[in-house]
């Protein structure tokens, strides 16, 4: 599943193609908005909020999309053929570019004033440009509301903090030396975990090749993610792999039992 850094870059790509130009085509291929037509309206901006994308257009409308598991926005020069297949959910085009939303998990069209209805439940966005100490404190407060939840589950709950997926969860907890199975209420400094996650995501938001180790070489770019069964880069113990949480696609957890003490609790 795309994480906040990928969604952030997607918003930037959409912005470069669409911002400031009038739409010459809009094609909503979702039943709810099949008759919507944004032709003639200028696109104002696309912003990301966690894993959500908000494309604001003239006239007080916002297109809300979410990549979910395998969605993407493909951008190509206007007039190019659309990618074959029946998975296109939305096309937005201007005289220069077309943006094709493929396998999008969500497509909504709402009044810009009602965006909060769609994203108001989210915790602070780790990649927000105006992030400050108050945001970190707010994430800590939200995490602490459910002290019995394991930190691994809590970090993926977008109501606590927006943007983290399985990769940044695994890497953040490794660097913090905290087992994903630890109960939130037993962790003294949740703020350290939040600021680590933010630092990792910010460091990677502008580049497609993620690295949390500072080393872009294959097999060296991540501390634990994708390395189950292989030796820990720090201590040499075998990296563990397990499942946690309820959403099937987000169960995978990898961690080092030696660097991150605290056994699975079921
Ligand atoms: Zn280790």
UniProtKB/TrEMBL annotation:
Keywords, comma-separated and alphabetical: DNA damage, DNA repair, DNA-binding, Glycosidase, Hydrolase, Lyase, Metal-binding, Multifunctional enzyme, Zinc, Zinc-finger
Pfam families (alphabetical): Fapy_DNA_glyco (PF01149), H2TH (PF06831)
Domain FPG-type, first and last residues per copy: 223-261
Formamidopyrimidine-DNA glycosylase catalytic domain ranges (all copies): 2-91
Catalytically driven reaction(s): 2'-deoxyribonucleotide-(2'-deoxyribose 5'-phosphate)-2'-deoxyribonucleotide-DNA = a 3'-end 2'-deoxyribonucleotide-(2,3-dehydro-2,3-deoxyribose 5'-phosphate)-DNA + a 5'-end 5'-phospho-2'-deoxyribonucleoside-DNA + H(+)
EC number per UniProt: 4.2.99.18
Coiled coil feature spans: none
PROSITE patterns on file: FPG_CAT, ZF_FPG_1, ZF_FPG_2
InterPro entries, sorted: DNA_glyclase_Znf_dom_DNA_BS, FPG_cat, FPG_N, H2TH_FPG, Nei2_N, Ribosomal_uS13-like_H2TH, Znf_DNA_glyclase/AP_lyase
Gene3D superfamilies: 1.10.8.50, MutM-like, N-terminal
EC class name: lyase
Family that this chain belongs to: Belongs to the FPG family.
The name this protein goes by in its record: DNA-(apurinic or apyrimidinic site) lyase
